[in-house]
Amino acid sequence: MEVFASMKEYGHEQVVFCYDKTSGLRAIIAVHDTTLGPALGGTRMWPYATEEEALTDVLRLSQGMTLKNAAMGLNFGGGKAVILGDARQDKSEVLFRAFGRFVQSLGGRYITAEDVGISAADMALVRNETPYVGGLFETSGNPSPATAFGVYRGIKASAQRALGSENLKDLVVAMQGLGSVGMQVANHLHEEGAHLVVSDIYPDCIDEAKTKFGAKAVEPDAIYDVDCDIFSPNALGAILNDDTIPRLRCKVVAGAANNQLAEARHGDMLQEKGILYAPDFVINGGGVTNVADEFAAGGYNSDRAYARIGEIYDKLLAIFAICDRDKVVPQEAAVIMAKERLEMAAAIKRIHVAQPR
């Protein structure tokens, strides 16, 4: 992969490759766009097969954060970081402290928090080296519950649009991924009376869903073939592609995973198949909205944050209205919403302010 060509393609400002010999840290920080403010986005730890795969992921994720933060009305730009490694066996204090020093070296251009494979305890170690950290125990905490609540609200809005009612009772939801977010989405759906069919690469997560929710389990690849009302992807991205979309047997795709569409044209494929797609960077915006509230005047307020997360329901309905107005698919409508705000901010005339001597 040609790094500068990829940065140009995605529109990035900065990509930082981080290596520390002592800890074995291998990480990439991508700052996509700071038009609205410092880049805010979580850190993901994953055993990528190649360095190129890690770079592609962080470029796509950080671009998505710019759109997400803009669409959610936050005064932050988009960024993301990935750490190459297995979150179940490669974590250490020295690794996260080394990562924190790289975050600190950016001088506040990038603010990090939890993502896949990362916990609030891990971020506390990063905080030893830099103040540019959100989602700590003593502030907003783990953003996963907030993300899950937003996804639940988004699923209800999508059901209202595609099925004529937001009531999820007795609907069949096929859930791909039962991590920290997916499991909590499953809990919300179960409490409302939905029937769950689940898949995950970790057997212990499957066992927990069976015990808690009475879920039916299928093999990871079989989840695409489940006859259901809603397909909810809550794992990794690019799972909606030429191979999987023809297999889907649902009316709605709505889940927490980032970058669910392998390519933009796959949004058109879903539309042609009669499947409503809830744009990922909007429906999963609850976590970053929760973290962003830490930086509001007076500090973090849970009631305020969750009230704003609940508005994901209304944002999705507004996006579906743009679909009707502009005759575009939901992903395009969501991008239109986000870019309108970015263009507004970029167009504001700069005013010179003298710095004190």
First-last Cα distance:
46 Å
CATH superfamily of the largest domain: NAD(P)-binding Rossmann-like Domain
CATH fold field value of the largest domain: Rossmann fold
Spans of 5+ residues with little confidence (pLDDT < 50)? Answer: none
Strand content: 5-15%
How many domains is the backbone divided into?
2
Count of separate DSSP helical elements? 13
| Mean pLDDT reading | 95
- Which CATH architecture of the largest domain is right? 3-Layer(aba) Sandwich
Shape: globular
Query: Helix share of residues?
Result: 40-55%
Number of strands: 12
Largest sheet: 6 strands, mixed
Structural class: alpha/beta
Radius of gyration: 20 Å
| CATH class bucket of the largest domain | Alpha Beta
Order of helices and strands: HEEEEHEHEHHEHEHEEEHEHHHHH
Helices and strands, with pairings:
Layout (H helix, E strand, L loop, with lengths): L2 H8 L3 E7 L4 E9 L5 E2 L2 E4 L4 H21 L5 E8 L8 H13 L4 E2 L8 H8 L16 H20 L8 E5 L5 H10 L3 E5 L3 H11 L2 E2 L12 E4 L18 E2 L11 H8 L3 E2 L2 H4 L2 H7 L9 H9 L1 H15 L3 H18 L10
Parallel strand pairs: 3-5, 3-6, 4-5, 7-8, 7-10, 8-9, 10-11, 11-12
Antiparallel strand pairs: 1-2, 2-5
Helix pairs in contact: 2-13, 3-4, 5-6, 5-10, 5-12, 6-7, 10-11, 12-13
Outline the structure in words:
The protein is an alpha/beta fold. The protein folds into two domains: 3-66 and 76-142, Leucine Dehydrogenase, chain A, domain 1 (Rossmann fold, 3-Layer(aba) Sandwich), CATH 3.40.50.10860; 145-285 and 313-340, 3-Layer(aba) Sandwich (Rossmann fold). 43% of the residues lie in helices and 15% in strands. Strands 1, 2, 3, 4, 5 and 6 form a six-stranded mixed β-sheet that branches. Helix 3 (93-105) crosses helix 4 (120-127), helix 5 (144-163) crosses helix 6 (182-191) and helix 12 crosses helix 13. The chain starts with a helix and ends in a 10-residue tail after the last helix. The mean pLDDT is 95.
